[in-house]
Design brief:
binds adenosine-5'-diphosphate; Rossmann fold; D-amino Acid Aminotransferase, Chain A, domain 1; 3 domains; 325 residues; single chain; alpha+beta; Dna Ligase, domain 1; binds magnesium ion; 9 helices
């Protein structure tokens, strides 16, 4: 029978087909003759304990000219999660009430029939900023998490130059680099913690951030590609969303070591496809919700055929499906 893959993502008309990783997966699954279905998190349903989604059939194509459509929507229907072979949970952060509710709705699938990629339980557990502290603290820079202003101020006095991060931020949002004697420090901490009510992360500033923030792509816990994001001269942040430039990178022995350490923990939570952020050989973030950069890596390295990262991901999923009872 023809396979069916459901892609849960942000509205398809809002994505950039030349950079979006979910779209890149869709292109590959379509080329394999798989039936692609599309929906957003608002389309998930639970009825008497059974999970469903209101979906649209979708055809995708990489536009060759400016303004050309990258998708075409077809028939609408309601499908049971259990009638899909694979469900890609690819909603972009923030991980907020809506995101968490979607993960909880996705829990109602029969894991003997259907793979949810990444697993919704894993997505709930592995906060992208915090989880590394539980499973790989030795590979992280010095880090303190607290909502207490005094604790944070003392930590910054000790560390000198620090990065402040909201725990549920993404794409560089809310990231601040501060010196210990900056007169804005206390006020910045008040803003980010909501006057001492919300924990934030305060992290040692890694000087290698000027050279770039490496994105290391892990598939099944193994590194399959890397890319360096280099910040602009006028910004501390390297995220591509805020003007960081994508450059070619390599997978180093440190990257291999970090991946080897994380692999069992990732696989135990069904976190098959993950993007590590690495600066100066240290993990600064473990992206599990909707990691990206695959198209950029393939283009920079001129990858073809089986080397292409979307091909590798879809091949990996084939292996997972073969192993199902
Ligand atoms: N410890 C650090 N030292 C220096 N720069 C950092 C550090 N952590 C993050 N950054 C900078 O901030 C950017 C965003 O940080 P990150 O933790 O990846 O959060 P997110 O990408 O979710 O916003 C990084 O791309 C990097 O440029
Ligand atoms: Mg990041």
């Amino acid at each position: 029978m023809q396979r069916r893959y459901l892609y849960i993502m942000d509205p398809i008309n809002s994505i950039n087909p030349r950079t979006d990783t979910t779209f890149y997966f869709m292109l590959e699954s379509q080329s394999r003759g798989i039936e692609n279905l599309f929906c957003t998190i608002e389309d998930l349903i639970n009825c008497d304990g059974k999970g469903f989604a209101s979906v649209e059939h979708i055809q995708v194509s990489m536009p060759t000219n400016e303004g050309e459509a990258h998708f075409h929507l077809g028939k609408k229907e309601t499908v049971a999660f259990d009638d899909c072979d694979v469900i890609f949970m690819r909603k972009d952060p923030p991980v907020d009430e809506r995101f968490l509710a979607a993960c909880m709705l996705l829990d109602c699938h029969n894991s003997h029939n259907t793979i949810v990629f990444n697993n919704p339980k894993g997505l709930r557990i592995a906060n992208e900023k915090l989880w590394g502290l539980h499973v790989a603290a030795q590979y992280m820079p010095k880090t303190v998490v607290s909502s207490n202003l005094q604790v944070l101020i003392e930590a910054s006095q000790h560390l000198g130059r620090v990065v402040l991060k909201p725990l549920f931020g993404s794409g560089g949002g809310g990231i601040l680099v501060m010196e210990k004697d900056d007169r804005n420090l206390r006020s910045a901490l008040e803003l980010l913690t909501g006057n001492g009510k919300k924990p934030i992360m305060l992290q040692q500033y890694l000087p290698g951030a000027r050279q770039g923030d490496k994105r290391l792509i892990l598939l099944g816990g193994k590194p399959i590609g890397a890319l360096l994001r280099v910040p602009g001269a006028d910004d501390h942040r390297a995220n591509l969303h805020v003007g960081g430039e994508a450059q070619k990178s390599q997978i180093t022995s440190t990257d291999e070591e970090i991946a080897k350490h994380l692999a069992p923990q990732l696989l135990a939570l069904g976190l098959h496809f993950v993007g590590l952020d690495i600066i100066d050989g240290k993990i600064t973030e473990i992206n599990v919700t909707s990691p990206t950069c695959l198209q950029e890596i393939d283009r920079l390295e001129n990858r073809q055929g089986k080397d292409k990262l979307n091909v590798q991901v879809l091949d990996y999923i084939d292996q997972l499906l073969l192993r199902m009872p």
